């Protein structure tokens, strides 16, 4: 049973993954897919547009209700204070001939506590006329009272009552999305204030009742507005509705949760900079989402104006955004699940209905795949009506496979014959290519040898002439200079410096002639070679060159790791190393480092092949176009050089059976690398060997 189900599932998977069948299924499912996708997008768009607009409409309405509540609060305050003004007890005390100030104050204090006011006092007409704050609230002749909102500083609050000054004071706390405040404490207070005319029994205005409420830390007003706007059931579960009064951009009365230590509400926190700019600075209403203290809210902000028409703060209403987003996402997930179920059921129904059409296609596909794998298969009878299009296609396809099989056998035979010929020609071509490369290599070496031999022949002829023409005059000069010193006697001291200079230059001429002869006729200067270690020769070189470079701040550092023995002449190798180090010092300024290193030379299999010597400097480097000429005789870039040092060094290394390479970067330095093999041909006694110039 399990095997049959597995075979059936595998067959269904093959049906779905076949290109033609996949397209047929897509064409069958396309109307359903388009309908469901359109339904999803329409639903999401409707939810976003309608739900968002409804939320903003609600918060705008909440803001309007909150503004109305504040106006109603001012009217109620005016009504309760008018009850005090019309009380018989107050009028009797005012009509008495004797002063009853203490009794009036006690009466006002009892009424203040009874009416829930923060301050209530009697102001005389002169006091009201000189107080700039009260002048704005003095009622006109036809008015009984005037109310409004004012912002009072700390001394003005202290005049109304010391408790009010302490209640208004609050620390300003830093708030996300808001710039840090330059002041650390808010000591001003926002008050809802009413000034009511007080008349005696004769109807004469004798003063004013000054009463009101301090809004700083006042919970009653914001909580009453919140309970009115966001009663239980008006918001989703988990949503929090809040109301806030701002003095400038500071929350002075709020039910937004969270705050400083000791505060359960966000008293003293700041509004975000975006809201501050639009509402406080531009005087516009904000209806949008906003960051409120520590969370995102659907928010409405409106500016608050004092009795003089100046913007002094803001009124805010809003509710948390997260529960609405959660509900929205939950609705989308529910809708998506329902649509997926519908899509699955629709696809299953379409698939079941199309199986009768797809199975013959699967049979054809299976045969084609088997043929591609080299198996001999035929479609045969599909179990359909002979006149069915698929049956006719199967018969034609089988006949085509028979023809194809016959053609494949013919092509295979021809291919085998062609492959044999190609292999034969390829082997011949590879052999000829190998021979050609060897001939080209031999040609290059022969050509280089011929060029070198031509140079040697030309140089030999030139050297012989120079030796003949210069050696005799040089000997005459030396003899005459000695005779001159003898003839002059004591007077020779006056020109001794000039005589020594002439002798030095003559000796230099002889040295140049000697170098020419050594390069042109190396066979005359052969020295015995022996197998030996390289490191002692390098250390001796450093001792010998120390005097030549002591005027420069140049350090010759050694890194000697080679332990293999090579066949060399120690004096000639020492001459090469000294020449390279002196050249390196000339290429450097007054300071730097010349690094001489040695290491074993290994072949591709890791076996010791010889020794590698490297001389690296930190000098000016060699220009790329000059690198190919530095080993040519008489080529030099120094005014005092002869151009034979590197040429002689090259010849010596070649006589050792090795080779020398150069790598240079302008401005960074030059590295000469010498590779000396260990398997140089020795004489039968294995003690010495003569290698002839550049001939080997």
Automatic annotation (TrEMBL):
<dbReference type="Pfam" id="PF00672">
    <property type="entry name" value="HAMP"/>
</dbReference>
<feature type="domain" description="Histidine kinase">
    <location>
        <begin position="465"/>
        <end position="680"/>
    </location>
</feature>
<dbReference type="InterPro" id="IPR003661">
    <property type="entry name" value="HisK_dim/P_dom"/>
</dbReference>
<keyword id="KW-0472">Membrane</keyword>
<dbReference type="InterPro" id="IPR003594">
    <property type="entry name" value="HATPase_dom"/>
</dbReference>
<dbReference type="InterPro" id="IPR029151">
    <property type="entry name" value="Sensor-like_sf"/>
</dbReference>
<keyword id="KW-1133">Transmembrane helix</keyword>
<dbReference type="InterPro" id="IPR036890">
    <property type="entry name" value="HATPase_C_sf"/>
</dbReference>
<keyword id="KW-0597">Phosphoprotein</keyword>
<keyword id="KW-0808">Transferase</keyword>
<feature type="coiled-coil region">
    <location>
        <begin position="401"/>
        <end position="453"/>
    </location>
</feature>
<feature type="domain" description="HAMP">
    <location>
        <begin position="355"/>
        <end position="409"/>
    </location>
</feature>
<dbReference type="InterPro" id="IPR003660">
    <property type="entry name" value="HAMP_dom"/>
</dbReference>
<dbReference type="InterPro" id="IPR036097">
    <property type="entry name" value="HisK_dim/P_sf"/>
</dbReference>
<protein>
    <recommendedName>
        <fullName>histidine kinase</fullName>
        <ecNumber>2.7.13.3</ecNumber>
    </recommendedName>
</protein>
<dbReference type="InterPro" id="IPR004358">
    <property type="entry name" value="Sig_transdc_His_kin-like_C"/>
</dbReference>
<dbReference type="Pfam" id="PF00512">
    <property type="entry name" value="HisKA"/>
</dbReference>
<keyword id="KW-1003">Cell membrane</keyword>
<dbReference type="InterPro" id="IPR033463">
    <property type="entry name" value="sCache_3"/>
</dbReference>
<keyword id="KW-0175">Coiled coil</keyword>
<keyword id="KW-0418">Kinase</keyword>
<feature type="transmembrane region" description="Helical">
    <location>
        <begin position="24"/>
        <end position="46"/>
    </location>
</feature>
<dbReference type="Pfam" id="PF02518">
    <property type="entry name" value="HATPase_c"/>
</dbReference>
<dbReference type="GO" id="GO:0000155">
    <property type="term" value="F:phosphorelay sensor kinase activity"/>
</dbReference>
<keyword id="KW-0812">Transmembrane</keyword>
<dbReference type="Pfam" id="PF17202">
    <property type="entry name" value="sCache_3_3"/>
</dbReference>
<dbReference type="GO" id="GO:0005886">
    <property type="term" value="C:plasma membrane"/>
</dbReference>
<dbReference type="InterPro" id="IPR005467">
    <property type="entry name" value="His_kinase_dom"/>
</dbReference>
């Amino acid at each position: 049973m399990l095997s049959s189900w597995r075979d059936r599932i595998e067959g269904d998977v093959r049906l779905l993954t076949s290109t033609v069948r996949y397209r047929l299924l897509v064409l069958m499912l396309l109307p359903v897919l388009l309908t469901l996708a359109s339904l999803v997008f329409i639903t999401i768009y409707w939810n976003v547009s309608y739900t968002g607009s409804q939320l903003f409409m609600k918060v705008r309405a909440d803001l309007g209700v909150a503004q109305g509540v504040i106006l109603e609060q001012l009217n109620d305050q005016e009504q309760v204070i008018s009850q005090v003004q019309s009380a018989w007890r107050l009028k009797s005390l005012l009509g008495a001939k004797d002063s009853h100030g203490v009794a009036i104050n006690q009466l006002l204090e009892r009424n203040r506590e009874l009416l829930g006011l923060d301050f209530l006092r009697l102001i005389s007409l002169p006091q009201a006329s000189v107080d700039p704050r009260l002048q704005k609230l003095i009622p006109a002749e036809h008015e009984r009272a005037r109310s409004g909102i004012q912002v009072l500083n700390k001394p003005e609050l202290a005049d109304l009552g010391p408790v009010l000054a302490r209640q208004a004071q609050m620390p300003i706390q830093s708030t996300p999305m808001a710039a840090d405040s330059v002041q650390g404490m808010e000591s001003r207070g926002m008050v809802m204030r009413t000034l009511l005319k007080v008349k005696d029994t004769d109807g004469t205005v004798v003063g004013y009742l000054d009463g009101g409420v301090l809004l700083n830390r006042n919970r009653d007003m914001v909580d009453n507005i919140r309970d009115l706007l966001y009663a239980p059931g008006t918001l989703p579960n988990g949503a929090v509705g809040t109301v806030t009064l701002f003095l400038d951009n500071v929350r002075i009365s709020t039910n937004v949760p969270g705050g400083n230590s000791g505060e359960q509400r966000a008293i003293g926190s700041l509004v975000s900079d975006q809201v501050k700019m639009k509402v406080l600075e531009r005087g516009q209403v904000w209806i949008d989402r906003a960051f409120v203290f520590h969370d995102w809210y659907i928010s409405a902000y409106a500016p608050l104006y004092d009795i003089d028409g100046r913007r002094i703060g803001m009124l805010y209403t809003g509710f948390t955004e997260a529960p609405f987003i959660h509900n929205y996402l939950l609705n989308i997930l529910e809708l998506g699940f329902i649509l997926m179920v519908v899509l699955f059921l629709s696809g299953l129904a379409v698939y079941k209905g199309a199986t009768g059409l797809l199975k013959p296609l699967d049979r054809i596909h299976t045969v084609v795949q088997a043929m591609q794998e080299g198996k001999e298969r035929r479609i045969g009878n599909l179990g359909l009506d002979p006149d069915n299009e698929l049956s006719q296609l199967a018969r034609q396809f089988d006949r085509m496979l028979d023809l194809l099989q016959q053609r494949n056998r013919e092509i295979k035979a021809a291919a085998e014959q062609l492959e044999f010929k190609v292999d034969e020609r390829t082997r011949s071509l590879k052999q000829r290519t190998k021979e050609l490369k060897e001939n080209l290599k031999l040609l290059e070496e022969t050509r280089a040898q011929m060029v070198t031999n031509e140079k040697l022949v030309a140089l030999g002829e030139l050297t012989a002439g120079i030796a003949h023409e210069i050696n005799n005059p040089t000997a005459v000069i030396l003899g005459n200079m000695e005779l001159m010193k003898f003839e002059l006697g004591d007077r020779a001291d006056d020109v001794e410096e000039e005589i020594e200079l002439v002798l030095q230059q003559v000796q230099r001429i002889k040295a140049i002639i000697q170098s020419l002869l050594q390069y042109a006729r190396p066979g005359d200067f052969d020295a015995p070679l022996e197998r030996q270690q390289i490191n002692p020769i390098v250390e001796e070189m450093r001792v010998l060159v120390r005097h030549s470079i002591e005027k420069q701040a140049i350090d010759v550092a050694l890194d000697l790791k080679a332990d293999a023995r090579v066949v060399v002449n120690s004096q000639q190798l020492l001459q090469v190393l000294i020449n390279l180090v002196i050249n390196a010092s000339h290429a450097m300024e007054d300071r730097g480092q010349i690094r001489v290193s040695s290491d074993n030379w290994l072949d591709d299999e890791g076996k010791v092949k010889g020794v590698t010597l490297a001389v690296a400097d930190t000098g000016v480097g060699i220009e790329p176009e000059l690198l190919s000429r530095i080993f040519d005789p008489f080529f030099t870039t120094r005014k005092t050089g002869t151009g034979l040092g590197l040429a002689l060094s090259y010849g010596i290394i070649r006589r050792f059976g090795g080779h020398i390479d150069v790598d240079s970067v302008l401005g960074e330095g030059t590295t000469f690398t010498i590779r000396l093999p260990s398997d140089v041909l020795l004489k039968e006694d294995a003690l010495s060997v003569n290698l002839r110039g550049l001939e080997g």
